[in-house]
Amino acid sequence: MSTLNLQIKRIYEEQSDEDGCRVLVDRLWPRGVSKEDAKLDKWMKEITPSPELRKWFDHDPDKFQEFKKRYEHELASKEEPVEKLLDLAGDQKVTLLYATKDETHNHAIVLKEFLEKASDNS
Fold it and tell me: Considering just the CA atoms, what is the radius of gyration of the chain in Å?
């Protein structure tokens, strides 16, 4: 497979031509963002952490390593949406958009790393 052209960004940051295909990877719609302002190409709720995992994690940095392991386990069983994102990011630049304030402990980081590893292994 070709090298992925993948980046992550908070949805509250200004949209840019550098974003390429903009994919929201949150299960819930971000507060204070209109559908028009979001300028999304896709909204992939199906690739997000399960509601149970999201509630358990509760944005607690101390739980991040365990969250990462559990979310990767969930992603391993989501073959179809993972393949969709891999195909997209193989063809063009893709920006994974998320809403949480924590830019170092969030599911978008885990998802990006998971996709990159999956791409390397194929």
Answer: 14
CB atoms within 10 A of CB 77: 7
Q: Which residues contact 51 (CB under 8 A, 6 or more apart)?
A: 27
Helices then strands, counting H and E runs in the chain, come out as 5, 4
Closest by CA position to 99, among listed 23, 7, 37, 24: 24
Q: For the segment 15-46, what is each residue's pLDDT rounded down to a tens digit? A: 999 999 999 999 999 999 999 999 999 999 99
Residues 6 or more apart whose CB falls under 8 angstroms from that of 117 comprise none
Query: Could you report the per-residue pLDDT of 57-82, keeping only the tens digit for each?
Result: 999 999 999 999 999 999 999 999 99
How would you classify the pairing of strands 42-43 and 94-98?
unpaired
